[in-house]
Specification:
Layout: H1 3-28, E1 40-49, E2 61-65, E3 84-92, E4 103-110, E5 118-128, E6 133-143, E7 149-156, E8 164-175, E9 179-190
Antiparallel strand pairs: 1-3, 1-9, 2-3, 3-4, 4-5, 5-6, 6-7, 7-8, 8-9
The structure holds 2-acetamido-2-deoxy-beta-D-glucopyranose (4 copies).
Length: about 190
């Protein structure tokens, strides 16, 4: 084979790899243009009912910290900057608030963006069902207006011992400032 033919083949191969990797990148939003296959996947919903001064019995979350210009009953105006909410929310397999829960989503969200609709999530799924037992721990930025947000799955216990991955968060429903439901598509890329 001549040097020229070899270099043409190299160029063609390079073009093919570049084209296919950018295709995969767009299709999977996984970064680096690499295609990773999850070792385990779970899709779950959780339901958050925020205390608003009137729904103490029904609420699953409460404002526990607010800036000087706010209070613990109503989120501060516009982007709710500075509010800290603690939650203990039911997790269900489908999008029905009244389905029997398979565990609790427990943790906090902090409205940490002054000039956009965004929060920071730090929470655990504590699962106790016939299929899964153990906890999964999540952290990350949650820009509400983006349809699909990606947060880190930093670890787990029991059935999720040493697991890591990425969760895709989607707002499945909202009602005023009281209720929201998130769909969480958990893809583990490290399983033990
Ligand atoms: C909390 O703030 C809201 C909005 O500013 C106000 O309407 C409400 O009266 C306040 N509640 C308390 C208990 O201070
Ligand atoms: C807030 O965001 C808007 C729109 O992006 C921008 O026009 C404005 O200057 C920003 N304000 C501050 C205080 O950063
Ligand atoms: C898990 O569910 C079982 C059966 O409902 C219950 O007995 C047990 O206390 C639960 N464990 C935890 C940690 O919630
Ligand atoms: C509890 O909150 C949910 C969500 O906002 C609502 O659909 C439901 O009617 C409430 N239940 C009670 C008893 O207030």
């Amino acid at each position: 084979m001549s040097a020229k033919t070899t270099s043409n083949i190299v160029v063609l191969l390079f073009m093919f790899l570049t084209a296919s990797s950018s295709y995969i990148h767009e299709g999977n939003h996984e970064g680096n243009g690499k295609h990773y296959k999850p070792c385990k996947r779970l899709v779950l919903f959780f339901h958050n009912i925020l205390y608003n001064g009137k729904n103490a019995a029904n609420a699953t979350s409460a404002i526990v910290g607010a800036p000087q210009w706010g209070n613990l009953t109503i989120l501060t105006s516009e982007f709710h900057f500075g509010d800290l909410v603690v939650f203990d929310d039911p997790i269900t397999l489908d999008n029905n608030l009244h389905s029997s829960p398979v565990g609790r989503a427990r943790g906090q969200y902090i409205y940490d963006a002054k000039n956009s609709s965004s929060s920071w999530l730090g929470f655990s799924f504590v699962l106790n069902s016939t299929d899964y037992h153990g906890s999964i721990n999540f952290i990350g930025a949650n820009p509400h207006l983006v349809n699909f947000r990606y947060i880190s799955v930093v670890g787990g216990t029991e059935d999720f011992f040493m697991h890591r991955g990425i969760a895709t968060i989607m707002t499945d429903a909202t009602e005023d400032q009281v209720y929201f439901r998130l769909r969480v598509d958990i893809k583990f890329y490290e399983c033990w």
